[in-house]
Model the fold of this input.
Amino acid sequence: MCAETGGQGLERARDLLRRSQAAVAFTGAGVSTASGVPDFRSPGGLWSRYQPVPIQEFVRSEEARRRYWEYKRESYAAFAAARPNPAHYTLSRLEADGRLLAVITQNIDGLHQEAGSGRVLELHGTNRRVVCLECHRREPAEGVQRRLEEGCLLPECPHCGGMLKADTVSFGQALPPDVLREAFALATSCDLMLALGSSLLVQPAASIPLAAADAGVPVVVVNREPTPLDRRAAVVLHGEVEEVLPEMAADVA
Ligand code: APR
Done:
């Protein structure tokens, strides 16, 4: 499929959105960079400054857990200060207008929900909660952040003393199977897939918009740089998603 790009692409994307009654959005970190949340693989992104701690290392090594919580403590202020941007609000409006069924997101910042999106599938969990790896109790992240700022280096579960971790999916952890199942069902039954602000390099998440393309669903990719899905897309728009998406959706609803 020869993707349309540029001005012609924007018009084509608008037309696809206008005709859609059951669109689905798949989002990555690029949707939140305009809100001040760094992405992972852009120059200066998170993975250039911080080594992710795989779950096996987290459980096995106290030093790895200290490093993990040190990063969480340091990055909390920027994370808590982030507010939704026009990309989040556009998706929320498209859902309110009955045109968008759901947002499937890799992001852990909760900004889609804060912008008013009601059906949000969090493939990689959320940084707004912590979970005990022993008793599985969950609580808002604010409490643990306070303990970290008071000098606690290794927060443990107040109920059972077990290891606490952000309620996110770390490398080596499985994605929540029910969320993954629902995401694939949506991707293969929607009438338009918007793949927004993701490098589409991480599996199994990246297979979700691909499943839409395989099912014959038109895909619109909006991203700063090329992605592996571009060659399967009906439209590829390279640019700032917080500008392109509102422009694409203007006067659609
Ligand atoms: N507008 C458009 N694209 C943007 C913008 C923006 N404002 N800001 C960044 N981008 C693009 C980058 O060029 C990059 O291609 O968004 C993409 C973000 O890619 P990644 O940093 O790889 O983030 P993501 O695709 O969400 O990563 C998926 O990898 O490490 C894991 O769990 C982590 O959920 C994450 C997953």
Q: What stands out?
A: The pocket of adenosine-5-diphosphoribose is lined by residues 28-30, 33-34, 39-42, 45, 106, 124, 197-199, 201-202, 223-225, 240-242 (CB under 6 Å). The longest strand covers residues 125-132.
